[in-house]
Design goal:
2 helices; about 15% helix; single chain; Arylsulfatase, C-terminal domain; alpha+beta; globular; five-stranded antiparallel β-sheet
Amino acid sequence: MSEFGEAWRRDNPDNSRLDYHFTQRGTGVEGAHSEPNLQIDWYMNRDFRLATLRDVTAPDGPLTVIDFTRYDLPAREPADASFEQPSRNWSLINRINQKRRRPEDAPIPFDSLTAEEKAFIASRVPGL
């Protein structure tokens, strides 16, 4: 395992070439309750992380964004971090986060993204 990690770091010293997509079908929770009709597609690259959700039994149904984190936006340390009150929450959360910790993290239809956001996504994932 460590040899693989060392080889990976040697071939990928930074995130500049990372660009991958994977599909998750169903929630994987409690067998029969797995929701096999739901599919999440994850797109991850140096510019953003995006997760879309769709019902595969309704191919013309809406595509929903459940996670969209842009890496080109300014990032900052956690607001509550201090010596007296340290924080270990270093999650980069900006547009929509799948963990739904904030009101603005509610899933949204893909079509409701701004034109600028859609163009930003299309620059890395044409045709989405």
